[in-house]
């Protein structure tokens, strides 16, 4: 994992190696299918001290890499504010447990649109 990604075009999705680049209103975001083996192999990109790999199958769920630690996280919005919550260290909680917790917590944070 790692390397240089360049997204060309405005179609909304581009594939680069094992990642899919998805266009958000501000920039391209790298997402990938998180598996137990891929999570174990994740490493900080060179020159970075903090990085998040997002899961393509569950929006708002990912793995945050900081220093020597890896934590499952969720990210969601409350009004115009983005919030992140840690779900636990990857050594203490399995990927499936983290996905289950993420689904529950993200469902609680969904506010019906008016």
CATH class: Alpha Beta
Number of helices: 2
- In the CATH classification, which architecture applies? 2-Layer Sandwich
Residue windows where pLDDT falls under 50 for at least 5 positions: 1-11, 14-18, 20-26
Shape annotation? globular
The largest β sheet comes out as: 7 strands, mixed
Distance between the termini: 41 Å
Q: If you average the pLDDT, what whole number results?
A: 80
Q: If strands are numbered along the chain, what order do they take across the biggest sheet?
A: 1-2-3-4-5-6-7
The structural class is alpha+beta
CATH superfamily: Integrase, DNA-binding domain
Spell the H/E element sequence. Answer: EEEHEEEEH
**In which range does the helix fraction lie?**
10-25%
What integer value in Å does the Rg equal?
15 Å
User: Total domains, how many?
Assistant: 1
Strand segment tally: 7
- Strand content bin: 35-45%
* CATH fold category name: Double Stranded RNA Binding Domain
Task: Please outline the helices and strands.
Elements (H helix, E strand, L loop, with lengths): L12 E4 L2 E5 L4 E5 L3 H6 L8 E6 L5 E6 L2 E10 L2 E9 L5 H15 L5
Parallel strand pairs: 3-4
Antiparallel strand pairs: 1-2, 2-3, 4-5, 5-6, 6-7
Mind explaining what this structure looks like?
This protein is an alpha+beta fold and 114 residues long. It has a single domain (13-109), classed as Double Stranded RNA Binding Domain (2-Layer Sandwich), CATH 3.30.160.390. It is 18% helix and 39% strand. The protein has helices at residues 36-41, 95-109; strands at 13-16, 19-23, 28-32, 50-55, 61-66, 69-78, 81-89. The protein has a 7-stranded mixed sheet, covered by helices on one side.
């Amino acid at each position: 994992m790692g390397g240089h990604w360049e997204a060309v075009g405005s179609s909304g999705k581009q594939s680069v190696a094992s990642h899919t680049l998805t266009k958000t209103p501000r920039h391209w975001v790298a997402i990938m299918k998180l598996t137990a083996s891929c999570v174990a192999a994740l490493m900080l990109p060179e020159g970075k001290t903090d990085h998040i790999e997002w899961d393509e199958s569950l929006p708002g769920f990912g793995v945050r890499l900081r220093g020597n630690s890896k934590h499952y996280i969720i990210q969601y919005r409350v009004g115009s504010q983005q919030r992140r919550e840690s779900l636990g260290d990857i050594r203490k909680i399995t990927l499936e447990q983290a996905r289950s917790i993420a689904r529950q917590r993200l469902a609680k944070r969904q506010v019906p649109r008016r």
